[in-house]
């Protein structure tokens, strides 16, 4: 029996064995694109130029999304690069970016509810360890998590499963006992799926800034983080259907009832208890 089919059968057992939830961080717990745009606006005001143009420099390569080299290249192409000025601009960029990070509405309440269910919570991020801790402290979210795992190098970045595997180990959970939650289909959902985890796509946070739509399909689509709470409180979503979803069967999911599985042939019961918080 292959991993995908096993994953769907696990889901049909009311999440009975789920012990842990692993979250991506940026654009899953908070709107990081808006924070970066605010930082780019500050840089553009200081240098002259266009904030969205600078943001596109960061979006060219997901593995360099945090890199100051993007600022250097932007300054050089504008004929503005000076070493002292570059250091000053990088400091401005980092300060404004961190100051602009704030949790999505309902995140604290959702994390508190999940903890109240006895679940262990973790973060698995492509950010650096220093940035991960700084942002989680800034947003006041760090106390909710039992483990925070960040990529030590590009070789550990999702969609490679390294950080997710380390988070599972830290939480004492196997892939079949955890759900991976993230806004990126090609990174978060792909990493979780490769390990045989259930996956929940944080559609509310997907700005799709640096990736094309993909054939990768999640097990669930979340319109808000509260949908995850509703799913786990309900603890009974009926049977899953095999084969696993394709893009064609996944795309309608955001327009259906919240927190539902995206498996082929799923016919949810339209009951009011599924009408959760639709805010991002």
Description:
The protein is an alpha/beta fold and 280 residues long. It has two domains: 3-31 and 105-274, HAD superfamily/HAD-like (Rossmann fold, 3-Layer(aba) Sandwich), CATH 3.40.50; 33-99. The protein is built from eleven helices and six strands. Strand 4, helix 9 and strand 5 (198-202) form a beta-alpha-beta unit. It is elongated, with a radius of gyration of 19 Å. Mean pLDDT is 79; it is low at 1-14 and 236-280. Belongs to the HAD-like hydrolase superfamily. One of its GO terms (molecular function) is metal ion binding.
Task: Explain the layout of strands and helices.
Elements: H1 3-11, E1 20-23, H2 32-47, H3 51-59, H4 69-77, H5 83-99, H6 107-116, E2 120-125, H7 129-138, E3 147-150, H8 162-171, E4 178-182, H9 185-194, E5 198-202, E6 220-222, H10 226-234, H11 247-250
Parallel strand pairs: 1-2, 1-4, 2-3, 4-5, 5-6
Helix pairs in contact: 2-3, 2-5, 6-10
Alpha carbon gyration radius? 19 Å
**CATH architecture assignment name of the largest domain:** 3-Layer(aba) Sandwich
CATH level 4 superfamily of the largest domain: HAD superfamily/HAD-like
The structural domain count equals: 2
**N- to C-terminal separation?**
37 Å
What is the CATH level 1 assignment of the largest domain? Alpha Beta
The count of β-strands is 6
CATH topology of the largest domain: Rossmann fold
Range of strand content: 5-15%
Largest sheet: 6 strands, parallel
State the strand order across the main sheet: 3-2-1-4-5-6
The unreliable regions are 1-14, 236-280
Helix-strand pattern, N to C? HEHHHHHEHEHEHEEHH
Helicity range: 40-55%
Instruction: Summarize model confidence as the mean pLDDT.
Output: 79
Count of helical segments?
A: 11
What overall form do the CA principal axes indicate? elongated
Structural class: alpha/beta
